[in-house]
């Protein structure tokens, strides 16, 4: 597969993965097609070498494992990423009427660049909980309205002359999406009815929902030579795409795992996030299901390695002063190893050396990212996962521009580079 073909495959994946819930649904189908079977947490597991399995938590995190030969000899080979992106979550009792319009009340999720959400066709997706015959087991349905039914309009410059000098946006009043004109015959809870209609259920059966806004426009290749990818939700589904594709397409020894967590953008402190013991429990149960014991699990950890794969910052052509003076990643320059003295990234001399070796074996260039010393950067699932799994870990990612914008820009060659490195890692 060429770099552009792989990039187009990524764009299609991103377009279908409107939220973390839809992303996990797509990943699950791809794994099933590749011969993976689902493990249920409430059931006893019995496994053997050669099995390919996956486990889902909360409908929004997924953990896939290929149990290769000599399962305990080489430990675990893990690549971690996350399924969520900054967005707006629709609040309960969301409909608001103002100046002849119907708006939806929303809450900001994560750290989006708010002004990039203005003046774009938007839709809604996520999951809905419905009434059932069992009080403890509501019916859960995934939903994607697909149509561009929402819009967050900018005020005209004639009424907001200072807009280009920088305006702080009020998250409660100024970034609410419009859904319709208010008519005298408008039904109450029209959004509620819309969701019910899409699902083919009675609106009275909807107990709750977790629904998020997303941009309906599909990503595309841009640039004079189509060297860039422009799309929603590249952070961080692009790394999930590369890791899962590499896992499916590679044979190797030991237990090879692709972990796609949820809620990284809001701190990971959920049962489906990197701050939970979910991945560690999954790995331990794999060892027991293969006939191993606690000691063998702990011994396997000593031989394991994790790549925490999230995106990184390219030097911006219009804001070059934001980058470190000597470590200046560029797009299509290869995977970026992220380093921080305050341990907001897990990379250390040992794990960095391992990743450099992987890049050289894959014949792929690599780069280094360090924040300017007078700026505080972000973090990833790496340090949080390390509190649950004491194994060597390196934080890496592809260099992008516009991180946390509604549309981010990455490099076509970079996606192929990181995919090739992941294949080498899983093939060891």
Describe the structure.
This protein has 428 residues and is an alpha/beta fold. The protein has two domains: 3-85 and 232-427, Aminopeptidase; 87-215, Aminopeptidase i, Domain 2 (Roll), CATH 2.30.250.10. The chain is 26% helix and 26% strand. It is built from nine helices and 20 strands. Strand 7 and strand 8 (139-144) form a beta hairpin. Helix 1 (3-16) packs across helix 9. It is globular and about 70 Å long. The protein starts with a helix and ends with a helix.
The profile of the biggest β sheet is: 9 strands, mixed
CATH fold annotation of the largest domain: Aminopeptidase
The global form is globular
Which value, in Å, is the CA radius of gyration? 22 Å
Percent helix: 25-40%
The parts where pLDDT drops under 50 for at least 5 residues are: none
Average predicted local confidence, pLDDT: 96
Structural class: alpha/beta
> What's the CATH H-level homologous superfamily of the largest domain?
Zn peptidases
- CATH architecture assignment name of the largest domain: 3-Layer(aba) Sandwich
Indicate the multimeric state: single chain
Number of domains as seen in the coordinates: 2
Instruction: Report the top-level CATH class of the largest domain.
Output: Alpha Beta
Tally of helical segments: 9
How are the strands of the largest sheet arranged?
A: 1-2-3-13-4-14-18-16-17
């Amino acid at each position: 597969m060429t770099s552009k073909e792989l990039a187009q495959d990524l764009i299609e994946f991103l377009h279908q993965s409107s939220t973390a819930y839809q992303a996990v649904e797509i990943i699950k189908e791809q794994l099933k097609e590749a011969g993976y079977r689902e493990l249920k947490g409430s059931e006893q597991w019995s496994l053997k070498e050669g099995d390919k399995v996956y486990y889902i938590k909360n409908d929004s995190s997924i953990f896939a494992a290929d149990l290769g030969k000599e399962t305990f000899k080489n430990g675990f080979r893990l690549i971690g990423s996350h399924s969520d992106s900054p967005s707006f979550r629709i609040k309960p009792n969301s409909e608001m009427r103002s100046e002849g319009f119907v708006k939806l009340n929303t809450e900001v999720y994560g750290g989006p660049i708010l002004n990039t959400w203005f003046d774009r066709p938007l839709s809604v997706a996520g999951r809905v909980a419905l009434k059932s015959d069992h009080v403890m087991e509501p019916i859960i349905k995934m939903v994607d309205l697909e149509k561009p039914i929402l819009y967050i309009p900018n005020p005209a410059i004639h009424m907001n002359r200072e807009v280009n000098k920088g305006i702080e946006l009020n998250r409660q009043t100024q970034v609410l999406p419009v859904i319709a004109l208010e008519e005298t015959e408008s039904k109450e809870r029209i959004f509620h009815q819309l969701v019910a209609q899409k699902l083919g259920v009675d609106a009275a059966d909807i107990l709750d929902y977790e629904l998020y806004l997303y941009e309906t426009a599909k990503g595309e290749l841009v640039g004079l030579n189509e060297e860039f990818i422009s799309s929603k939700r590249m952070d961080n589904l692009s790394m999930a795409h590369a890791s899962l594709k590499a896992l499916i397409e590679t044979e190797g020894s030991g237990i090879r795992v692709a972990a796609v967590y949820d809620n990284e953008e809001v701190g990971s402190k959920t049962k489906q996030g990197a701050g939970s013991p979910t991945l560690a429990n999954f790995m331990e149960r794999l060892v027991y299901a293969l006939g191993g014991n606690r000691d063998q699990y702990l011994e396997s950890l000593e031989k394991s390695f994790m790549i925490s794969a999230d995106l990184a910052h390219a030097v911006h052509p219009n804001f070059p002063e934001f980058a470190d003076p000597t470590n200046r990643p560029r797009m299509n320059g290869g995977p970026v190893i992220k380093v921080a003295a305050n341990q907001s990234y897990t990379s250390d001399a040992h794990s960095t050396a391992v990743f450099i070796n992987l890049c050289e074996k894959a014949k792929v260039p690599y780069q280094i990212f360090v924040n300017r010393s007078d700026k505080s950067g972000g973090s990833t699932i790496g340090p949080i996962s390390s509190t649950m799994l004491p194994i060597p870990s390196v934080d890496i990612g592809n260099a992008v521009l516009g991180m946390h914008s509604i549309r981010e820009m990455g490099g076509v060659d970079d996606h192929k580079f990181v995919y090739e490195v992941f294949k080498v890692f899983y093939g060891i």
